[in-house]
Amino acid sequence: MSHNFEVTQSELLVDAPVIALRRDTLVMPGGGAADREVVEHFGAVAVVALDADNRVALVEQYRPSVRRRLRELPAGILDFHEEDELTAAKRELQEEAGLAASDWGVLIDVVTSPGFAEEAVRIYLARGLNEVEKPEAEDEEADMGFSWLSLEEARAAVMRGEFLNSIAITGILAASEVHSGRAELRDVAEPFEIRPTSMATRRAAAGILPDMKRI
């Protein structure tokens, strides 16, 4: 029988706008206890947007954590109270790529760093694209680049090690499987069961609404 890792104590160590850090004390197999630090997160969405020529819409954004610009998918965190994932994905696609789509499906859900973080991402495939007005960007996004790359070349670039963002790698490879007919999209109504809730629940209870990162 699998062990039940019961949390006997939890302490909030850091509470920042888009992440928090807590320390949980868990019961280990054999009856002992151990502390584990967990980075809390709102969860996120990302979009593989394919045009009629099977080109992928890509953005390039500076990431302070790795001190370099990375090629990525349009993406964003689920920081608005009770906003559903598809609505967030449509918003991010417009804000980061200036695109809207008429055809949506779920590609894959992924936990990005399960060793220490709650972050989970739902990645969509969006088709039937058209250009829409892109709002004015702020901070790093004001320096964001944009480009198109064929799905075939994007997959090859992943395998050459030219993509470092794990969400982009996952989304591109999953989209390639769907495009080849080896996999099928899931319905957008399918629940995002691994969406993190701890930080969102705490911020909502504190009245930090609707934008839960404004603390």
From TrEMBL:
PANTHER family: ADP-RIBOSE PYROPHOSPHATASE, UDP/ADP-SUGAR PYROPHOSPHATASE. SUPFAM superfamilies: Nudix. It comes from Corynebacterium glaucum. Its EC number is 3.6.1.13. Keywords: Hydrolase. GO terms for cellular component: cytosol. One of its GO terms (biological process) is ribose phosphate metabolic process. PROSITE patterns: NUDIX. Pfam families: NUDIX. Coiled coil: none annotated. This is ADP-ribose pyrophosphatase.
